[in-house]
Amino acid sequence: MRLFLERGYGATTVELIAAESQVSRSSVFRYWGSKSDIVWSEFDVHTERLRELLRGVAVDLATMDAVRQCVVENLRTSMEGSALWLERFAVLDSAPELRAEEHAHWVAWAEVVAAFVAERHGHLPGDVVPQSIGGAVQSAFLAVLRRWLATDDRSGHLPTALDTALTPLCEVLQGWLDRD
């Protein structure tokens, strides 16, 4: 990650990564299938953990309260688990070479939320309501991360900012679910 941040994603070769890590090029590819996997792998772990957090939610908690709490907790856990999680996001969001893969990863993240909403409310995961909610929450999450990138504040206040941003959105979406 340090190399990507210092040199940029495109200018950082697998050979350079291997040399800095003191391993062979083939060892890099044994652990990660591609250079982009080095960056995306933690995001995919983050997405899977969100799925697990949502599975463990109490049934009496309102759907959108559960989504908000799990999304915020997942971000907090990601930040605590990896000092470079947010820097990894900076690389993901700034490297044109990674943009081609970005859509699939963010859609997978939104699908986790959509599947949870669908299951709770008797919809199919591909129905309009769960898909719209998954997309809205994902968009808010992404907007908060991008706003963070634009500041010099790299403190631990990001989960609080995310919670603050998601609260009114989730209230509106819960109202939509309650009318559905």
**What is the helix content?**
over 70%
Count of domain modules: 1
Provide the β-strand percentage band: under 5%
CATH class annotation: Mainly Alpha
* Mean pLDDT value: 91
Number of helices: 9
From the helix content, strand content and strand pairing, which structural class follows?
A: mainly alpha
Count of DSSP E strands? 0
Pick out the low-confidence regions.
none
- Predict the CATH topology: Tetracycline Repressor, domain 2
H/E topology pattern: HHHHHHHHH
The CATH architecture designation is Orthogonal Bundle
How do you describe this structure in short?
This protein is mainly α and 180 residues long.
Structural features, described:
There is one protein chain. With 180 residues, the protein is mainly α. It has one domain (36-179): Tetracycline Repressor, domain 2, CATH 1.10.357. 78% of the residues lie in helices and 0% in strands. It has helices spanning 2-7, 14-21, 25-31, 35-55, 63-81, 85-94, 96-121, 128-149, 158-179. Helix 4 crosses helix 5 and helix 8 packs antiparallel against helix 9 (158-179). The longest helix is centred in the middle third of the chain and has 26 residues, at 96-121. The radius of gyration is 18 Å and the shape is elongated. The chain starts with a helix and ends with a helix.
